[in-house]
């Protein structure tokens, strides 16, 4: 997916620009009296959460989460948990039980096999994403001039010792230049200007660059041709450049608000600005140097970072350094439609840190409306296999 991911973004330059105030952070790092940010859930702190009875969980609300959890199990019992909270053997008995548990009694499944935990302060921020549908065709034709690229073969990870590793220990994405030096990959502006043209990477063509920009942010989507045929595409790779939210840029420039000439801070408001101001909008989109490559998908839904389909109103994207991919999460927010039990099955480029999640709402007008305006704040409670907290020595 999503974007993806993205979490996985390169941080390999010698100095970094602090976006909030424009200061340069020196290579030597922050002052010694400033604590380092937590690197994963263990360093953020983990404690026992509320009793299950306080969650108000019902079997009707738990059933979609049980289905999503069951689909996650084949990957959950075979992958390393980078949050440091769980081990693969913690999940095996839970998944064995889930395989035959009746959905009508889903609440008792979670109460039987899980205990609640809070990571960090538990304060959560939840946005939304969906599977957009935009106009697109397989072969270029008049009115369909924006290419959808597959992953380029020269987009690779640096070899050990040839670049600074990412925060999660992986090597950054980029390419090797003619002299064999590892360099950043082409950014959005370069790709839009034709850096990849003529390489045979086009898998489809779309009609609207702004709509495609948002499909890239979502990480997957549907392309509908004039004859009604559909192509489903999903995340294949990202170019290694950091994600920049253009909504934040607009807000900093005074373009978002309720005053004259200002636009709503939702996806719909941002899209309206891009269409009202095509030249300025194109320049704004280029400020997000991140670029997503796609592959054609088959099956019944877009596939998340866990390698299983994400499900509407059941799947979350999260930061795998702070929550195990495949784990259930209970949300209690100021946006009631997002309250309840979810399962973390995806990641995203802007989804970083403890209790930061992106909720998946499916496809269609309602999904677009809810996801585009979703920004809920409240509390997140992580569900872990029973006995995990005692092993970790958590309070």
How would you describe the overall organization of this protein?
With 395 residues, the protein is an alpha+beta fold. It has a single domain, classed as Beta Barrel (Barwin-like endoglucanases), CATH 2.40.40.10. Helix content is 24%, strand content 25%. It is built from eleven helices and 19 strands. The chain has a six-stranded mixed barrel with strand order 5-18-15-17-16-19. A hairpin with a 4-residue loop joins β1 and β2. It is globular, with a radius of gyration of 21 Å. 43% of the residues are buried.
Q: What is the chains' assembly state?
A: single chain
Largest sheet properties? 6 strands, mixed, barrel
* CATH level-3 fold name: Barwin-like endoglucanases
State the CATH superfamily name.
Answer: RlpA-like domain
Major beta sheet, strand line-up: 5-18-15-17-16-19
* Count of runs of 4 or more consecutive helical residues: 11
CATH class value = Mainly Beta
Proportion of residues in extended strands: 25-35%
* Average pLDDT, all residues: 89
Residue ranges: pLDDT <50 for 5 or more in a row?
3-32
Beta-strand segment tally? 19
Beginning-to-end CA distance, first to last residue: 35 Å
Described by the principal axes of the CA atoms, the overall outline is globular
In total, the number of domains comes to 1
Rounded radius of gyration (Å): 21 Å
Give the H and E element order: EEHEHHHEEEEEEEHEHEEHHHEEEEEHEH
| Helix share bin | 10-25%
User: If classified by CATH, what would the architecture be?
Assistant: Beta Barrel
């Amino acid at each position: 997916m999503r974007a993806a991911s993205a979490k996985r973004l390169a941080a390999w330059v010698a100095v970094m620009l602090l976006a909030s105030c424009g200061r340069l952070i020196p290579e030597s790092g922050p002052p010694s009296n400033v604590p380092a940010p937590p690197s994963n859930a263990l360093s953020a702190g983990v404690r026992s959460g509320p009793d299950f009875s306080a969650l108000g969980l019902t079997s009707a609300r738990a059933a979609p989460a049980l289905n999503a959890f069951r689909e996650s199990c084949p990957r959950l019992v075979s992958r390393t948990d980078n949050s440091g909270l769980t081990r693969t053997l913690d999940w095996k008995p839970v998944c064995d039980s889930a395989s035959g548990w009746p959905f009508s009694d889903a609440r008792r499944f979670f109460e039987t096999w899980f205990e609640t935990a809070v990571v960090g302060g538990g304060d959560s921020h939840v946005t939304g994403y969906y599977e957009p549908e935009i106009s697109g065709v397989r072969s270029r034709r008049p009115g369909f001039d924006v290419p959808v690229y597959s992953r380029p073969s020269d987009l690779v990870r640096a070899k050990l010792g040839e670049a600074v590793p990412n925060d999660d220990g992986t090597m950054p994405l980029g390419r090797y230049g003619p002299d064999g030096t590892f360099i950043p990959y082409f950014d959005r502006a370069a790709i839009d200007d034709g850096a990849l043209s003529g390489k045979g990477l086009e898998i489809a063509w779309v009609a609207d660059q702004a709509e495609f920009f948002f499909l890239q942010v979502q990480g997957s989507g549907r392309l509908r041709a004039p004859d009604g045929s559909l192509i489903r595409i999903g995340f294949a790779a990202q170019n290694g450049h950091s994600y920049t939210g253009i909504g934040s840029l607009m807000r900093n420039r005074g373009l978002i608000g309720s005053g004259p000439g200002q636009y709503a801070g939702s996806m719909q408001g941002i899209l309206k600005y891009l269409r009202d101001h095509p030249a300025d909008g194109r320049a704004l989109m280029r400020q997000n140097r991140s670029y997503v490559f796609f592959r054609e998908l088959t099956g019944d839904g877009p596939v998340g970072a866990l390698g299983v389909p994400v499900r509407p109103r059941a799947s979350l994207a999260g930061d795998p350094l702070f929550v195990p991919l495949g784990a259930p999460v209970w949300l209690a927010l100021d946006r009631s439609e997002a309250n309840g039990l979810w399962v973390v099955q995806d990641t995203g480029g802007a989804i970083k840190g403890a209790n930061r999640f992106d909720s998946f709402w499916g496809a269609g007008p309602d999904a677009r409306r809810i996801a585009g305006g979703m920004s809920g704040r409240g509390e997140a409670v992580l569900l872990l296999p029973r006995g995990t907290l005692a092993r970790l020595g958590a309070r």
